Amino acid sequence: MTDSLWNNTPPEPIWRKDVLLPSFPALAENLSCDVVVAGGGITGITTAYLLAKEGLSVILIEADQLLNGTTGHTTAKVTIQHDLIYDELIQHFGLEKTKQYYAANQSALDFIKKTIAEASLDCGYSEQDAYLYATTKNSADKLKNEYEAYKKIGITGELLDDIPLDFDVEAALKAPNQIQFHPIKYLQHLVDAFLEAGGKIFEQTTAKEIQKDTKIKVVMRNGHSIECQHLAACTHFPFIDEKGFYFTRMHADRSYVITAACKKEFPGGMYLSVDEPKRSIRSVEYDGRKLLMIGGESHKAGQSKEDEENHYQALAEFAEDVFGAASIHSNWSAQDLITLDKVPYIGPITSSKPSILIATGYRKWGMTNGTYAAHLLKDYVLGKSNPYSEVFNPSRYEADPGVKHFLKENANVAAELIKGKLSFPGSSLDDLQKDEGAIVMYKDDRTGAYRDLEGKLHLVDVTCTHLGCECEWNSGDKTWDCPCHGSRFSYDGNVVEGPAKKPLKVIDPL
Fold first, then answer.
1. Pairwise pLDDT comparison (487 vs 295), residue with the higher score
2. Which residues, including other chains, have CB under 8 Å from residue 10's CB and lie 6 or more apart?
3. Euclidean distance between CA atoms 277 and 297, whole angstroms
4. Least crowded by CB within 10 Å, which of 25, 105, 210, 332?
5. CA 237 to chain CA centroid, nearest Å
6. Pairing assessment for the beta strands 279-286 and 289-300 based on DSSP bridges
7. Preceding omega of 277 cis (within 30 degrees of 0)
8. pLDDT, position 421
9. Is the CB of residue 391 less than 8 Å from the CB of residue 104?
10. Comparing 77 with 462, which gets the higher pLDDT?
């Protein structure tokens, strides 16, 4: 492949290139309401919209800008085909609970379809067949087991020995009548409807902690607060823990996405490889052109074995080899949380605090999981029973595979903690070029250094402020990423993503 195809452009999701979202002020006074919803992604916006429709007073707060987090970095496949999952869930949870997981996600897909149809939304909506495909015999056997799980659950599916794409596969599993769309254009409609129902939105408003007496007081980083009866924390990683120990019960995965203009005609459909390296494929329209969106290259956050730019390069090579890609249009990365048993945590943060609700751990399938989470959170707030609440209960405990995964994840954390403390930097300040970052020795201490495009140095203590692991430089997004629990910090130390709440210590270069 030619070196010119991958152009090393700054990351920016395609979804934000053609939508001008309104901006909202930061919270500048103390307020009160029925429900505070923290988090401006698909879960938070949908939750706020549903509750406002019920006549409750709702305030939505976002630490950054609406739809600038995981939702704004999605591939926006709306499907019940969540990779290989149903056969595994039957083994771990039994058939009945697996049916409930499927039914919840199918109801979310139906809600999105209905919302788009009723409002006649122009949001890139199209129905597509979704395919899982295997390129090895071992994975083909897994697909056959997954197909058998589909039949037990009642999922419409078809086992195939070929797919419409121009490469050979051992087997494929098709789920018909799934959908793809433009997530921000869809959610912009829900934002407008929420505001029309009397809802309030505050951006650049970071929830710091809660105080609880007869009511919940959500205290912001700027000192202002909102009193409420219920709090729905839809912040990707919960900004509070309340002894739920969620940082030990989830891990963060980072993955990469490109869009490309290709010479070969795309036959339609949404595709995901079962084998590694993962490849996620769909089409997307932008400015009258049809582009291909290709994702993959997943790894644990902060634990990539190579430079982040190489992941984009690998996707570009795949796009060129398979689809004749002529140019790269955009690129970005995303971070997703995965629970011990691969099922999201949706509901009370602990069994003793029913008025504090969370929704997290969507395992890269946030369009349906996040939408259903909003409906489940709404029922909790309204005191209504929900047939699927037990499946997603954050306080659930399943010995298989919970214990094994718990030990594995925390052994990994311990290994990363020790490795980070003992590793010796291989770079010096003099080595840094403009727009480069690295860990260097500065005044006999391991120090994070980034030299910006103007040549100015930014130095930080790379010890994560969450639990003390050592952050690694992410050259793709220009961030410091923690390999233990997925916290991310900007090059000048500010928190980009939790569970960390405090910024990295800034060091003045002399």
1. 295
2. none
3. 6
4. 25
5. 10
6. antiparallel
7. yes
8. 45
9. yes
10. 77
CA distances (Å), origin 82, targets 79, 136, 258, 260, 365: 7, 19, 21, 24, 7
Structure token pair of residue 414 = 């311990």
Helix (H) or strand (E) segment spanning residue 255:
strand 250-262
Q: Would you say 229 and 357 are in contact if contact means Cβ atoms under 8 Å apart?
A: no
State yes or no: cis peptide before 22, omega within 30 of 0: no
Q: Which two tokens stand for residue 472?
A: 């690694």
Q: What b-and-e string marks burial along 354-378, b requiring 16 or more CB atoms within 10 Å of the CB?
A: ebbbbbbbbbbbbbbbbbbbbbbbb
What is the CB neighbour count within 10 angstroms for residue 176?
11
Question: Which residues make Cβ contacts (< 8 Å) with residue 66, sequence separation at least 6?
Answer: 21, 24, 40, 45, 187, 191, 201, 203
Residue 80 burial class via C-beta count within 10 angstroms: exposed 0-12, middle 13-18, buried 19 and up: buried
Edge-first strand order for the sheet with 488-490 is 472-474, 479-481, 488-490, 495-497
Cβ atoms within 10 Å of 208's Cβ, excluding its own: 16
For residues 216 and 483, give the distance between their C-alpha atoms in angstroms, rounded to a whole number. Answer: 33
Q: Would you say 347 and 389 are in contact if contact means Cβ atoms under 8 Å apart?
A: yes
Other beta carbons within 10 angstroms of residue 83's beta carbon come to 17
Residue 35 DSSP label: E
Q: How far apart are CA 5 and CA 315, in angstroms?
A: 11
Sign of CA dihedral 339, 344, 348, 351: negative
Residue-wise pLDDT tens digits, 399-417:
445 545 544 545 454 444 4
Locate all alpha helices (DSSP H) within 54-94, ordered by sequence: 86-93
Lowest mean pLDDT across 174-178, 337-341, 358-362, 441-445: 441-445
**Tell me, what's the pLDDT at 250?**
85
